[in-house]
Amino acid sequence: MFGETLWISPYVFSTFVALQEKGIPFDVVEVALADGAHLQPSYRDSSVTARVPSIEHGGFRLAESSAIAEYLDEVFPPPRLLPADVPARARARQIMAWLRSDLAALREERSTVTMFYRFRLAGLGAPAARDAQKLIRIAEQLIPPGGGPLFGTWCLADSELAFMLHRLILNGDAVPSRVSAWAAGEWSRPSVRAFVDHPRPAAVPDSYWTFSGTPKPAA
């Protein structure tokens, strides 16, 4: 797997958890995004879209975390990453696509760097607060009354939704107890902990802020 050096990307998280859950032996090659390593021809051309993460399997290189998850389910035996039931699988894909394409204000104000590095953050602005309300509403709708996996058995959408909720939880923003308890259960899953507890640089390099375009919060 080709990942990034800070270990904060939600997309690297998705692919890392997927590989862990499949029990597939793999090596990790860190790609220095802030230094433009993903744009070098050696990486760009083989991955096609020059995106991280990517995987290489049997000489085939594939980028985009959602495509990687589907590829792994098609090529490798269970456990599955997406539900076997067709409607449930469609819903899981819907949620995963939504997490990648919506909640822009929340993702900006509670970027993943704030999940793994501590900063003094202001309260959520109005657009981000609306995003947080939407996220919580959908989580409350999806989480079974008694807790547990969203679709009967664990799938990758569970971990991805928990990751998004932890943008709020780890920064002390209000999350209903039922939702936070569900997310905490997902956060303790071994495949997730392997990512969360992975060693990271002691500090965020200055090049990250330039690369990401994210204003640097107060330390």
Query: Strand portion, in percent?
Result: 5-15%
Provide the spatial order of strands within the biggest beta sheet: 1-2
Integer average pLDDT:
94
CATH level 3 topology of the largest domain: Glutathione S-transferase Yfyf (Class Pi), Chain A, domain 2
Number of domains: 2
State the end-to-end distance. Answer: 32 Å
Helical content (DSSP H or I, runs of 4+): 40-55%
Q: How does CATH name the architecture of the largest domain?
A: Up-down Bundle
Question: How do the helices and strands follow one another from N- to C-terminus?
Answer: EHEHEEHHHHHHHHH
Summarize the main sheet: 2 strands, parallel
Radius of gyration computed on alpha carbons: 17 Å
* Helix-strand makeup class: mainly alpha
Poorly predicted segments: none
Shape: globular
What's the total helix number?
11
What's the count of strands?
Answer: 4
What top-tier CATH class of the largest domain fits best? Answer: Mainly Alpha
List keywords for this structure.
single chain; 219 residues; mainly alpha; Glutaredoxin; Glutathione S-transferase Yfyf (Class Pi), Chain A, domain 2; two-stranded parallel ribbon; two-stranded antiparallel sheet; 11 helices; 6% strand
Task: Report on the architecture of this protein.
This protein is mainly alpha-helical and 219 residues long. The chain has 2 domains: 92 residues, Glutaredoxin, CATH 3.40.30; 111 residues, Glutathione S-transferase Yfyf (Class Pi), Chain A, domain 2 (Up-down Bundle). Helices cover 52% and strands 6% of the residues. The strands form 2 sheets. Strands 1-2 form a two-stranded parallel sheet. Helix 1 runs parallel beside helix 3, helix 1 crosses helix 10 and helix 4 runs parallel beside helix 8. The radius of gyration is 17 Å and the shape is globular. The model has no long low-confidence stretch (mean pLDDT 94).
